[in-house]
Give the backbone structure.
Amino acid sequence: MFSGYPDELVKDLSERWGRVQACVREAGADALIISSNVNLLYLSGRIFMGQLYLPAEGAPWFFVRRPCGLAGPNVVEIRKPEQLAERLAEAGLPQPRRVLLEGDELGHSDFLRLAAVFAGAEASNGSSLLRRCRAVKTPYEVRVMRMTGARHADVVSRFATVYEPGMTDQAWAVELFGLMLRAGNLGLFRVAGGSMEAFMGTVLAGDNGGAVSPYDFALGGAGLHPSLPVGQCGVRLAPGMAVMADIAGNFYGYLTDCTRTYGIGPLPPEAVRAHQVSIEIQRAVAQAGVPGAGGEALYSLALGMAERAGLAGCFMGGAQKARFVGHGTGLVINELPVLGARSKDVLEEGMCIAVEPKFVIPGVGAVGVEDTYVVTSSGMVSLTPCDGALVTL
Amino acid sequence: MFSGYPDELVKDLSERWGRVQACVREAGADALIISSNVNLLYLSGRIFMGQLYLPAEGAPWFFVRRPCGLAGPNVVEIRKPEQLAERLAEAGLPQPRRVLLEGDELGHSDFLRLAAVFAGAEASNGSSLLRRCRAVKTPYEVRVMRMTGARHADVVSRFATVYEPGMTDQAWAVELFGLMLRAGNLGLFRVAGGSMEAFMGTVLAGDNGGAVSPYDFALGGAGLHPSLPVGQCGVRLAPGMAVMADIAGNFYGYLTDCTRTYGIGPLPPEAVRAHQVSIEIQRAVAQAGVPGAGGEALYSLALGMAERAGLAGCFMGGAQKARFVGHGTGLVINELPVLGARSKDVLEEGMCIAVEPKFVIPGVGAVGVEDTYVVTSSGMVSLTPCDGALVTL
């Protein structure tokens, strides 16, 4: 383990190892080998280039290629992953016969290379096991999520202060990014899935709120260029437009998600009402989001409320609709669980979930709210406490 | 092909297909299937979710899951990659028997899924073939790189205007990011390799210039948090510090790289001299960088000049050194070729290469310059024209 960590982090990492090791044993494997940044961060508390070797029982080993100079118990320098076999032997550990590798995160060629390190060993995919473990935050992680959400919400509550009439969506977005960064946001937007990407978040104004995107986010936006077709499109903010600001909070490596909606002057009654329905759906989902609640049931609850409000046609998109109303968040913006159609996920205490009922009103724009919650025994508690009312700019 | 593209882009994409198809035939394959954003952008001019199917001969096909509504010749909507087989059959195309997939970019599980689409077909790794093709820019791509570099250099030339005494490295970096974004930089920093990541770039002040990082960039920096150990570390800019600003330019999906160095007040003579040596090395590498020059030879040229200046010990890092002095850039910041130790790459006309001889002066910081060049018949020509002299703040 790397030296210099505070005691509470050391203790928490032990808890994470224990949870993951229980799953490794359940999968009948001898060890799990981690190479991806996100899972290294989860299981070692930092990013390094190399492998974390977690046997089914006992302490993990840290095989570090870069940076030089990292030290601590079970920390071993290597030049290449092929050295894992001999280094384990030198440490007196048995060679694993069945290993779990990150089949979703590792490139195919990296997977094959790592699978060949232990002669004759059988390699399987451990990615979904890790995703399921990461979905349920430890007490330490919940504290980090809570601190993140508080800082995030504080910045969001100041978004209106940097608006100036006549701005484009991009000009306002740049000011919002600046507010976030000056408040300590690290900027990086980590997302699972090879084809998902975005800059720090999106500001969707007017009909760009319903623009279709290749990415699997709740709403898309056309983006500024075909090389990054998501987010603001360069339109000038004009009276009657709804503008939705959805920028992630990343102050300590964990992401919170929070969206607020603004009107450039007064918005039409249907948009104001849809925004209110979004707030009501979010509240209902948060109340119903107790341990044991199903991801699909929570989505159905949200969809049913949208239907009864006569707003199903513009719920979660226009021409292209997201089939979810919420998603886990943490080290990546799209953790488990999914609150969506056909989701088999079941809520557990400690899950952190962004709930984002959104509507796209043609000719006006996207309205609604998004907040990040932690699941407690009595339902979801918001981690991003700031006023969700529609703000008139 | 997607409708609505300008003629010159359509023509250029045809040239790219032709180059890649020649390599596909040389590899003895029937088709190449693309799923990753970067290669989709390269071969289709935009990002979509789905697959581009490039047969060894004839026009490519575009199988689109998202966004809805994309249209044009050979554009086919799908719900899942398994439909490729039947859609090709419907189009009267033969089923491929040997396919190339993106073995480096695709996750292992995605690779296996795609490899199983065509019953009995043999799947190999086409990633390096694509990387080699992408390394040599088409005339259209060179124009985009040139436009990118010009806009990039224009912003860099204004970096000093947003400096204020007493700032931290991060405070200045945020102002620089803001300048970039307001000038139209899209922000996204695309990089190849699953474990490489950074925000828009780095500002390395004082001894943070020599801080070791897990990432394989020329210099690292400790970063603000263990979850992103690269870049500025929060130090206050103080007299006598060298500060190196290295922020990517991404205005049209192609990245240029440019680094400039600043002194907080006058710097010691050894730092001033090392900066001058960096400029001389860069000039020598650019002159020697004609078609046919080897990546290793150019690195040796640079290293030799550093040695003769008595600066080998602080060339390209301190405790941890990069073993390269330049790298291709384009759709990702780390394209081929590599100008480095053991590189077998050979320069060709149209390659775009960032040359970044840098020195880390203990107690002062990192000094040096970086510019992006295009290889022409008579050597490298800078795409990021702005004064490289050390700037005293």
